[in-house]
Structure formats: structure tokens, C-alpha cells
Amino acid sequence: xxxxxxxxxxxxxxxxxxxxxxxxxxxxxxxxxxxxxxxxxxxxxxxxxxxxxxxxxxxxxxxxxxxxxxxxxxxxxxxxxxxxxxxxxxxxxxxxxxxxxxxxxxxxxxxxxxxxxxxxxxxxxxxxxxxxxxxxxxxxxxxxxxxxxxxxxxxxxxxxxxxxxxxxxxxxxxxxxxxxxxxxxxxxxxxxxxxxxxxxxxxxxxxxxxxxxxxxxxxxxxxxxxxxxxxxxxxxxxxxxxxxxxxxxxxxxxxxxxxxxxxxxxxxxxxxxxxxxxxxxxxxxxxxxxxxxxxxxxxxxxxxxxxxxxxxxxxxxxxxxxxxxxxxxxxxxxxxxx
Length: 338
Fold this sequence. Notes:
The protein has eleven helices and nine strands.
């Protein structure tokens, strides 16, 4: 079967993105309790990837937070906030940095940190590896501008959901390889990663992933056609090395994983997800390499279970998982002060 045209993929992207905007808005504006709104945003230039462009950064901040050092009294200037750089989900093709407002709210309320949600460029307009490059650019920019934004460059962690979970690992791996060209590697130390239901092994087909956890065929909220759209949009042009650590961090060499990933990690999988087996296999591998890996399989849930609008019902399971994760983020950031 011939691959779909890039034009047809862009048309589908417009439809899916429009539906996602509605879905996300129901969670952010209709579901109780309402999450925080964005405090401010920045547009930064891309420098790592070949196609030039801009990357949107949304800043969620606690109160009080003084955005400009020059405008802050001395007592506030000395306060530096830990930073969580977050990557949203959406198969690398849909979604936007607003989607994780509820996660940002949980982090801020638990740890009084600044959450920066990255609006990396999306496929099919910007296929692999542009999303990864944009993530690296975001971290480099935050590091370079930390002082003027009252951010603590010694306390940076990453998080991500689904495709964003993949990016949280892939960005860390690529950052390790590229950072020496611009900033001494020893000066950027990522303290941790929190990844929710990430893809970590692209050498498996979608059929093989489903076969590894057959209940996902019945429980998945994502239709097969959308999976095909995701893959055709992001994995372009062909052929691509599916075993590359930037696509499949679960297959990266032991040496790279030990050197590039922080020592503290949180990895969450879903019982009814086609990604369950590869995610749990990666968790065990990281533990075998001496990493301190928390997280768990979330029982009775499918992929992206925490992103559904809850309206007035709330979501106790989501709140528990987010509380576990934010508590571990606090321990990650504490390691920088010891």
C-alpha cells in the first residue's frame, strides 16, 4: 500500500488538532477543580534542527513569582525556583502545551516550582527528529536565561506524557551528545525524569505492540487509523533507523543510558495500553543499570487515561498518581542542595 501523501496527512492533522482543542478545553475550563492558567509565554528560536522556526514555551509559576530579576526586591531576587520542563502528548502530531495544565498545577501546589511546557513543532509538517531538537533547544534556552527568570539551573527535571514521555528520554539522550558543542556538559545536570506511558521501542509494529497486550485492542481509546496517521506523519522520510536511541530509548546502549539519563526516574505504564510491555521492560532495564526507578503500572486504565475531562466527578486515581510523582520530584530537586 502506498504511503499517504503529506497533503492528506496535513488535512487529517487539522481535523485531529481541532478535536483535541475541544477535548483539552473541556478538561481545563469545564472540569472541576479548574487547573492553573499560563502565567506568561516565550517564543524562542530553533537552533538545533535544520529547518528554522520558533518554539513556544508556556510558563506556569507559583505565587509570588517575580518574572524579571531587575523588578524584584533583593529578598525575592535571591529565591531561585526549581524547573520542570514538560512535553505534551499527541503522537508527535496533535496536542499543545496547554494540555498538561492540570499536571503543572499539581507540581506547583506540591513543590512551588516553575513548570515550562514546551510547544515543540509537530508532524507531519515537522517530522522526526524535529520535536527532539526543539526539546533540546528548550532546555538550552532555559539554562542560558535562568538567572533573568529567577530559575535554578542546578535543579532541572523533565516530564512527559505518551509521545512526550518518549521525548523526555530522547531529549536527555540527545542533549548529552550535543551540549558539549555549546555549554560544558558538566554544567547541565538533569536531576530526574517523570514519564507517563511513554513509547520506548519503535522497532515493534503497532500489531506487535497490540499482540503483546491483547486487552489493549478492546480498551484503547485510540482508533487504529489514528495510529497509522501518527506513524506516517512522524516517521518521514523512510527509511529510518527504528532502533535509534532517539526513537527507541529503550534500546539505547547501557553506556549511553548510564551517562545521559539522571539517576532518579519515575515511569508509569497503563494496564490496558499496547505500550505496557515495552515500558515495563525498560523500567526493569533501568533498574538493572543502577538507576533509582519509581512509578508503577496504573491498574485498570488505558493510554492517556488522565487526560479525559472529568467534569464534576474529579479523578481520584489521577490525583494519587500525580501526588506520588510530585513527591518524588521534590526528592529529585533536594539532591541538588546536598
